UniProtKB/TrEMBL annotation:
SUPFAM superfamilies from the UniProt entry: AbrB/MazE/MraZ-like
InterPro entries: PrlF_antitoxin, SpoVT-AbrB_sf
Organism superkingdom: Bacteria
The organism of origin for this protein: Oleiphilus messinensis
Recorded GO MF terms: DNA-binding transcription factor activity; toxin sequestering activity
GO biological process, one term: regulation of cell growth
Pfam families in alphabetical order: PrlF_antitoxin (PF15937)
The protein's name: Regulator PrlF
Length: 109
C-alpha cells in the first residue's frame, strides 16, 4: 500500500451492511443516496468508485482490456497509421457530421 493516499476501514453488520468511512465519502464526493461501484480485479483487489449515471458497457470494457493486455504483451506489433490511410478515411467521412447522442430513427433500429 505504499502508493495509497490513505487507508480506511469499516465493519460489516450482521446484515452485511457497512458505513462508508468519511474520508472515502469525501474523496469520492458521495452524498446520501449516491451509488457506488465495486470493481473486483483478477488479483482479488477491489476498487471502490462513484457510480456514474452513464453505465459502462461490460462487453466494450472487456474488449478494451483485451486490447490493453495485448499491447502490453506485444508492443512490437504497434505500428503508426500511415498518412495514406488517414487521408483515405478523411475522404470517406470528412464532411459527415454525426451526433452520437441522437436517438436512432425507427428505420435505423
Amino acid at each position: 500500500m505504499a502508493d495509497s493516499l490513505f487507508v480506511s476501514e469499516s465493519t460489516l453488520t450482521d446484515r452485511y451492511q457497512t458505513t462508508v468511512p468519511d474520508p472515502v465519502r469525501k474523496a469520492l464526493g458521495l452524498n446520501k443516496r449516491d451509488k457506488i461501484r465495486y470493481t473486483i480485479q483478477q488479483d482479488g483487489n477491489v476498487i471502490l468508485s462513484r457510480a456514474d449515471l452513464n453505465q459502462d458497457d461490460p462487453v466494450l470494457d472487456a474488449f478494451l482490456q483485451f486490447i490493453a493486455d495485448d499491447i502490453q504483451k506485444n508492443p512490437q506489433n504497434i505500428k503508426a497509421v500511415s498518412a495514406e490511410l488517414v487521408e483515405r478515411v478523411q475522404d470517406l467521412v470528412g464532411d459527415i457530421n454525426a451526433d452520437l447522442d441522437d436517438p436512432l430513427s425507427d428505420e435505423d433500429d
